[in-house]
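Retro notes (design track)

What went well: tokenization of the new backbones is finally stable.
What didn't: we kept losing track of which sequence belonged to which structure.
Fix going forward: every design gets posted as structure first, then sequence, in one message. First example under the new rule, 193 residues:
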């Protein structure tokens, strides 16, 4: 048992129940579904706004004036001075990179089945296990720290049972929905964005 983990008995229904995965540059929110999974993608290079320089070019900042206003409890004057002379134009925000929709053709989970979704903090891996009709399905998802790669693998029932790698087929549908025009390449069961 992994004591440094969070475990759930059902997929996420809302965004705040989804599990965050990322490496500081790229990120994802995973809902832990097999049917109609939505993985919300984020890249730190996608921002709203014009792309112009945001720094304040003022090099003559009167730090003593700012300190004195704070010490004299003239907070509004200090804030106004700071906005005018210190801060840059940082009003933009992250834009979503898109939503990756994955629909795996597995039986629908009923009360007779079981489900477990776990995020290991030690390994930084999300594992989902789904049992239905006597068959167990697994999936694994993580974001590499050393390479700009998100790894998502679905392990169908017969591979889980046999514990060895053999040719297999899983029926699935993948759709990438992006706000910005995005080039992607599909090769050898890998999706490159």
């Amino acid at each position: 048992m992994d004591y440094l983990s969070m475990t759930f008995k059902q997929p996420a229904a809302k965004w705040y129940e989804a599990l965050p995965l990322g490496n500081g540059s790229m990120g994802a929110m995973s809902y832990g579904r097999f049917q109609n999974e939505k993985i919300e993608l984020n890249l730190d290079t996608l921002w709203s706004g014009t792309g112009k320089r945001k720094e304040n070019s003022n090099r003559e900042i009167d730090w003593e004036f700012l300190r004195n206003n704070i010490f004299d409890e003239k907070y509004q004057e200090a804030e106004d001075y700071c906005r005018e002379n210190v801060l840059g134009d940082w009003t933009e925000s992250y834009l979503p990179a898109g939503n990756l929709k994955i629909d795996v053709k597995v039986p629908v989970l009923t009360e007779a089945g079981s489900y477990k979704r776990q995020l290991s903090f030690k390994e930084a891996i999300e594992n989902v296990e789904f049992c239905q009709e006597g068959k167990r399905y697994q999936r694994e998802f993580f974001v590499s720290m050393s390479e700009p790669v998100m790894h998502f693998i679905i392990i169908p029932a017969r591979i889980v049972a046999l514990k060895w790698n053999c040719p297999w087929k899983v029926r699935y549908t993948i759709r990438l929905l992006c706000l910005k025009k995005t080039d992607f390449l599909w090769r050898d069961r890998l999706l490159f964005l």
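Added context from the reviewer: The helical segments are 63-71, 75-85, 157-162.
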